[in-house]
């Protein structure tokens, strides 16, 4: 069975296996925490699509003859709950590894615990550089582009097109926002930029709106708006800035550049000119209509997740990381120990994934755990993201 949030969903594949008297020769248990409830519940799309993915893997015979069981539990986007659920998965359910858990604060809260117990914390769905630090946390591997990598690309681009500009920043008052802003400022300093952060305001993840912050930022008349927010607040900030008539060059992060759920909520006409970056193909974008990897994902969605939204970027990115996790487990063969899983995850070479932009591949090494180091800059034209040359 697959545990989705608080409910048990029976997999027909696993039930059929039991009735046949055990066609699999064992199980591979993976643990995960997701915000199935709480202020960031929309992000749980990642866990939902990954559960369907491993259902497909089991239907096709599992991994090296073993059934994959993904135990995906609700943490409400609460670090304390993430600790409780992770301890349950490790100590009661005896998972081989934690996989793809969501959120910076949630993963940070369990990182020392998992590393002390030598439980792989793989492909963390968060961008903090602390999840790509093999010296301090050798059992943790990131699943996203790190904040410093992304922030540096924006700093370099803005310095090139808006030298001397004043930058207004809205950022989440937690490790995500603080680290991102610090990395942006550091890169400006490193390249000797004349750009300045003229105003930086925070918001809490539990806040109803960020309207008051955007009003203050707009009053600064800054030339650039660095909108370092999570999806709900990205939509609000874009909409409010437009309503106020404030038209700076605006940058939104990878985690909030989704057309279907973020930009549409803001109003597509208010998003024209937005700048972002990405390593992945965009869900719902006709650019990829005939791309083999994208078509493969669409076929998966149609068969295993027909109620899922094929314009939702989280469904594509979640699928992508599940493909990577499957590869790591297959490459372990019959040596399914924590040490071997970690070794495979940290020795990936030029791995092309179906959701990555052609030419961008996954590479890891024992001293560099970052899985993605390349990004494509893009501009929103009112309908879709367009590649910038």
TrEMBL record:
Carries keyword Signal?
yes
Indicate the segments forming the Leucine-binding protein domain, all copies: 27-381
Q: Which domain of life is it from?
A: Bacteria
> Does the record's keyword annotation contain GTP-binding?
no
- Show the InterPro entries listed in the entry: Leu-bd, Peripla_BP_I
Q: Which residues cross the membrane?
A: none
Pfam families noted in UniProt: Peripla_BP_6
Instruction: State the UniProt keywords alphabetically.
Output: Signal
What family is this?
A: Belongs to the leucine-binding protein family.
What this protein is called in its record is ABC transporter substrate-binding protein
Q: Which organism is it from?
A: Cupriavidus pauculus
